[in-house]
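Escalation from tier 1.

The customer reports that the assembly of two entities below gives different structure tokens on two consecutive runs. Tier 1 could not reproduce it. I'm attaching the input and our single run for tier 2 to review.
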Amino acid sequence: MFNLIKADLYKSFHRAYLYVIIICLAGLAVLVNVIVAQSDCSVEKALQLILELLVYPLFLICLFSDMTTAEENKEHSLKNTIAAGISRTKVYFAKQISTLVIGLITGIITIGVYMASDFLLMHSDGSFSQTFSDLMPYLGTAFLCYIAACFLSTALAFIVKKNALFSISYFGILVFPVLLFRLLNYANPIFLKFEELTLFMQTNSIITTAPEQLINIVWVAAIHLVVFCFGGLLIFHRQEVN
Amino acid sequence: MSENILSTNKISKKFGNFQAVSDLDLELCRGEIYGLIGKNGAGKTTLLKMISGLSNPSGGSLQLLGETTESGFQKARAKTGCMIESPGFLPYLSANDNLEYYRLQRGMKDKSCVQKALKFVGLSGTGTKKFKNFSLGMKQRLGLALAVLDDPELLILDEPINGLDPMGIAEFREMILSLNHEKGTTVLISSHILGELSQIATTFGFMNDGKLIEHISAADLKEKCKMNLKLTVDNTERAAKILEQNLSCNEFQIENEREIHLDAFLDTPEIVVKELVENDVMVSGVERTGLNLEEYFINLVGGMQHV
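Tier 1 run:
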């Protein structure tokens, strides 16, 4: 499995796609701070602003699955891996982990640039370490939601051959249940509970949840993660690789 | 007796109601070049996909390099090189980077194998040129380079010469023959270009409607297809005696009371006719007959309307 991950990283870092994503996200991080700095904001307040942006990475995750998996499906190069006798389970989990690693690297660089520009453009009110440690449970919970979304995205990248359809399916599964349950809510208010249980709504609600209540989101994200992961694996095992 | 490297036992594949491969038994011995012949939709690619693990059989069983279990197949497939359908590679990487990706994936220690494989297929000079800018011939070569990257015992090639120019086809043929002769690689190859297959295959398998309808060695096929002179005469016994006594020829078969098939004098039938006529045997017909691989295949599947 380590060899597969190593090869995926080799492939991803040998092209402009990943670098362009990292540069764009880092540029956006700097831009946010440049704008925030106009209002005489402190480093700590700018850090808290991250909480308001927690839902957006959900939409970016499919870019990493595209890079590691969907593209191989599109270019019919996945068959070279399977035909070499590497088990489908290994390939599946290696792709999931590679996607996570690439996403993590991008995330760390983006947050690093965000914090560095924070310090360069703003002044600290002296509560940085307290603010940062307060932020950690939120970031940790959001990270688990991202892992669940990553498993969904990569599973879909294995299953759906066409690139455009893959992206539509990902956003569809992420957002469509929210809209569906919101509509069904008019028929029966019980559906509002289902809406709250969707991964999208759970990630969206992190900012308004008290730290001691975050565990509920962790559970829901973990259930999503297991369902997406093993559902995808089951389908991939039965699928014909072209 | 040669070691059996691959065998399928009533292997089958069904897509919905469509039976792509039906109870197919195939045997491949070490060192053979097995030519799989069949029209489009005969089930060749589906069969090769099942052997290489890209598709799960609906029924039957498989033995690959002595292995019969799923974990065994993984070990066996690691010793198998494949090129199924069109070669698929990452378009933004060069030939070297693409092979390096698969070298890392397979955990191969020897870094030089990438350059060796590229040199073997004549792609060592492509430098940083990306796969997306390759010609079809170059793509096919890179497919072969990947298939031979870790010196496979068995090479599975599905229509490897599709789209190649005559020069490319000849080079591809030489590469396959050199792998077979120098490294003893067993080759299972499917192709539509039957003339090409007839130049390299040592065994042929003919597929039609998902079934293997004939399995024949190249020597037996040559015997069945060989050219001969069909003589229509009024007295076959007398004609046979003249052929033996006057022309010292015994390479003939009496097919029926009016027909003799002669394996000699193919280029000089007039000598035979003159001798027979001068010895009072009436010759009412002389015809050169025989089949090439294409005609043999067409006859086998029941004529042109079935091709």
